[in-house]
Amino acid sequence: MYEILSGILVDDLDLNASDVRPDASCEDAGLDSLAMVELSMILAKRLNMQISDDELLATKRVADIVRMMEARANP
Amino acid sequence: MRHESRPGARGGGAAAVLCGAGYWLPPLIVTNADLCARLDTSEEWITSRTGISTRRRVTADITTADLAAEAAERALKSAGGGEVHALILGTTTPDRRCPATAPEVASRLGLGCIPAFDVSAVCTGFLYALATGAGFLAAGLAERVMVVAAESFSTLLDPDDRSTAPIFGDGAGAVVLRQGSPDERGAVGDIILGSDGTRSELIRVGAAGPRGPLENRPGPGTAQYFQMAGREVFRHAVERMSAAAAAAAESAGWRLDEVDRFYAHQANARITSAVANELGIPAERLAENIQEVGNTAGASIPILLAQTAASGFLAADHRVLITAFGGGLTWGATTLTWPEVEIVAEQR
After folding, report:
1. By the 8 A CB rule, do B26 and B170 touch?
2. B234–A37 CB contact, under 8 Å
3. A interface mutation test: which of B167, B235, B239, B241 has the most A CBs within 10 A?
């Protein structure tokens, strides 16, 4: 799941690959509020995964988003 | 329930053919550093969130009518002069709440007592005005129409609101349309338009207009200023512009990879890039000027068309896909194959 997320962050959201690591804070990875909206939209459209931008904004690290994606993929 | 305008609504009437274009920007340049002197923000924050480095702003001696008249004059020159039988002005920032600004613009251009009126659809204003102008031509009400979009959006802004003050700039763009046939260069394709009034609160000015009575113009942070729910607007803008643009391209019989130049309302560089990604349109086909002029609201599309035609980025025979989104909510899209037109480059 981390590979899917990092692919979206780097290829679609144009974040720096070197900043995107599981232990990176969302802020250090470049995930600001608008990026969270875009990520939420891509997850819904591409993976049929419903995670709101409010939920994404409540995460602290990239790994938290991965955990949330895993939970939503396997409810 | 009906959604959006019906493609093919032109019926048997004449097509609207673009035969001239022009733009004008007020001379005052406001940099991010200028804004940071007052706002609690940084140049890096503004650039990374919006893609904007500078924007043009009106000064006390320049109004929306001035911007519109300058742009329209250049569009008329680009069209080789001649008569125009109606003038339609898309604006959210008219000089007064009453009357409309368009008649004054028409008079100042020496166009005589032609029909002239304003259309208000915020950042989709140009496409709504374009559709209205095309309707005049199709209905036989005019043979040539001036469509202008002009905004002094800075007059709506709270100078202390870091979420809106850096985004908007002022300016005007205009095109001249003439009656023609749908298969010639410059013919405007089906125009997709839509609105959703259930979300009017996302982009709004609660109280009086910029030139309203002083007693209705209380201090900062009040309803007199423009307000926008950034994250929700981002989502709706990307979804609506992507869908409308795809529908307009389909209506024209174009695959998206056949689009040579893509013009999305210059709301925010991150929005235009997300829309282009969604449609699979490569970055090199995406027209942009937001870095230098900011979001000029309803005027952004015609300014961008005229600027890029003057610079050579947009050339004759290019297949052009246009989309916009704004308060209302409103949105729209259309297509045209760019014609051979001479554009007057910006004066300095």
Report:
1. yes
2. yes
3. B235
Query: Domains along chain B?
Result: 1-348 (3.40.47.10)
CA distances from B339 to B44, B70, B86 (A): 39, 22, 22
Min Cα separation B273/chain A (Å): 9
Residue B183 DSSP SS3: coil
CB contact under 8 A, A38 and B238: yes
pLDDT in tens, B115-158: 999 999 999 999 999 999 999 999 999 999 999 999 999 999 99
Structure tokens at B131: 């559709």
User: Which of A65-69, B6-10, B205-209 is predicted with the least confidence, judged by mean pLDDT?
Assistant: B6-10
Residues of chain B numbered 12-71 and touching chain A (CB < 8 Å) = 48-49
- Residue B77 corresponds to which amino acid? K
Q: Give per-residue pLDDT as tens, B275-330.
A: 999 999 999 999 999 999 999 999 999 999 999 999 999 999 999 999 999 999 99
CB-defined contacts A:B, below 8 A = 28
Chain B nearest-CA distance from A59, in A, is 17
Q: Is the pLDDT of residue B228 over 70?
A: yes
Predicted TM-score (pTM) of the model is 0.92
Q: Which residues contact B46 (CB under 8 A, 6 or more apart)?
A: B32, B35, B36, B52, B166
Q: Residue A37: which of B49, B231, B277 has the nearest Cβ?
A: B231
ipTM: 0.85
Taking the Cβ of residue B239 and every Cβ of chain A, the question of whether any pair is shorter than 8 Å is answered with yes
